Amino acid sequence: MRKLKLQMQLTVNGFSCGPNGELEWMTWNWDDELKNYVTGITNSFDTILLGRKMTDGFISYWTEVTKNPDNPEYAAAKIFIDTPKIVFTKTLEKSEWENTVLAKGDIVETVNNLRKQEGRDIIVYGGASFVSSLIKNNLIDEYYLFINPQAIGNGMDVFGEVNGVFKLKLVESRIFECGIVVNKYIPNN
Question: In terms of CATH, what superfamily is 4-187?
């Protein structure tokens, strides 16, 4: 069965973005070691899951990068644009993006059906409320939490909808030169 992996940037105090989606706190001076680590994650999946609110910004950004083959992010952008994407939405009637389909049904049923399909793993990048729904329903198999060396006063917390204690088991922790710490967790139920 395919795994559902979460790759998410967080502040040191646990926010995935500011209260209005602000991301200026993210650290982007990644060294080659961190880039190679992310490439390892990227090479493990063949499907991307996104929440509707994040999709336009995600696809717009990476589409723009693919217009310049000299851009250092070009190879990653090609992967993100060429990989099939599934956008979870309750409001859209048709996909506005190439290589993207909409999922409008039950999140648990849809994700479990995707896991049963042939192929490599599945990655989810966000947004915050979509990831919260996945966490609340215990659908994520591996958590790659990129802890940035920044704190913000308030923001969106992807673990906010968890009832009671949500246990995770730390299976790897790596410190990178730019100050990001990547913690890899699996559910520990």
Answer: Dihydrofolate Reductase, subunit A (3.40.430.10)
